[in-house]
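Q: Structure tokens for this one, please.
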Amino acid sequence: MKSPACLTLVLGFWVGASAMIWFTAIASFSGIEEALSINEPLGQRANVPPGDKEALRKSSIFVFAGELNRLLFRHFNRAQLVVAAAALLVGVFAAPRPSAIAPIILAALCVLALTFYLAPAITDLGRQLDFVSRASPPAAELAKFERLDLLHDVYKYVEAGKCLLLIAACFFALRKPRPASEA
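A: Here is the predicted structure, written as tokens:
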């Protein structure tokens, strides 16, 4: 009988790493805002007046955080491709039920979409808008902001779907097979 322990370990690592990457990305922007609010000289050096969210969003330090997040997600997505391959390999050899493999394949397809379509589109558009005012963007840039927001939303939903698929794969891997007499 195949043991699901190794597969659930790989899948659990993958879900945990996904949660950690989102926490890190969110914390990078809110961390800058908090650091500037508690360290006034830092805000002065960054040319960000206290409480001025628009100046913060257009500041080099905020754009730098955005660029770090782009790099973080690019490298994480590439790492996810390796983890997806490992999960599929382990799943083929260790999953007690074949039903655990389908969600892993779908999660891997999600990662392909994130890596090769959504992340590059967000990166390209984000760089075009790095120093553009969100409060009163030029008319030509407004549609770009709307598209960027849409791409971020789609990215989040695909990422959440991927995590749900991985949790489902764990469930299918851990579920006890029914005895042959009940099947």
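A few notes: The two ends are 17 Å apart (CA to CA). The chain has one domain: 5-174.
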